[in-house]
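agent: user wants the structure for Acyl-coenzyme A thioesterase THEM4 from Parambassis ranga. delegating to structure tool.
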Amino acid sequence: MARTLCRIFKGCQSICSLPLMKTRLHPSASVLLRTVCVRRMLTLPLPFSPKARDFSLPNSSWGAEMRQLYEHYNSQCEEEMKGEEKQDWAWKRLPSYNRSLKYATGGVYLSKIIQSKARLFTRNIKEPGAAFEYVLFVSKDEQKCVCIFQAGHLLEGPPGHVHGGAIATMIDTVTGTHASVLSAPVMTANLNINYRRPIPLGSTVLIESSLNKTEGRKVLISCKVTSTDGSKLHTEATALFVAINVSHLLGG
Ligand SMILES: CCCCCCCCCCCCCCCC(=O)SCCNC(=O)CCNC(=O)[C@H](O)C(C)(C)COP(=O)(O)OP(=O)(O)OC[C@H]1O[C@@H](n2cnc3c(N)ncnc32)[C@H](O)[C@@H]1OP(=O)(O)O
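agent: tool returned. relaying tokens verbatim.
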């Protein structure tokens, strides 16, 4: 059972071609999985709902700083024509859903089996701007990831400032997503955080993640949270992620 689910899950991943996770498969195995998956998808309900909301797109709660930075990175996402030559994008925006297994990876059946009511922690509040408003961009060579984060009023810790756990959540989300893009599905093994300056509630900050090194299944990342002009260092962190097989989540 677990093995079948893994097969469906991996096949769907390669079809979805989203950058969140890469499968390392021999080309012939990849073709086989794709075929298996397409056949299964033809007989099963579609894994993508047209109603799936991409939470990383601008909404009315975004302040001027958040919008400006979004435009800055987003404008570097599209392919450009320079003279006769086509220039590749420098950054890629990563979509973000509240049911990652269902919408981002196409693992609709896995998402039902694990927890049909499960929702991504950072995307489970309906009111725009109330909690975690963020968008992630990954660089072309994938060595860097940048997140524009606007902290809503429900994230209060010390009066008027963002809760340390909410900051840790965002660091884990950004570095974890970055590690998944670089490697495969990963889990956080270690997260070290130094809080340097409090983050005012309602403010927009930049969370930048950089690859330190990869060692087999291990991905080591460093991260800093700064004001949008880079003048204030709010938080810095290092994180270790370990690539897992999906059966790890099924207790296999
Ligand atoms: C499928 C998902 C779809 C998602 C799609 C969309 C995603 C949407 C974006 C959301 C992004 C959010 C990102 C949040 C990510 C979490 O929050 S994950 C939740 C928190 N983390 C956990 O619960 C993990 C619990 N721990 C574990 O499950 C296991 O300990 C681990 C981490 C998987 C490692 O276990 P293992 O696979 O048996 O590996 P193990 O052999 O013990 O260790 C491998 C290597 O790592 C080293 N290591 C392991 N742990 C440590 C440690 N703590 N310190 C130092 N070294 C360590 C070992 O020494 C070993 O090193 P080498 O000997 O190879 O040099």
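agent: one observation worth passing along. The pocket of Palmitoyl-CoA is lined by residues 20, 100-101, 104-105, 172-173, 176-177, 185, 187-190, 216-218, 240, 242, 244, 246, 249 (CB under 6 Å).
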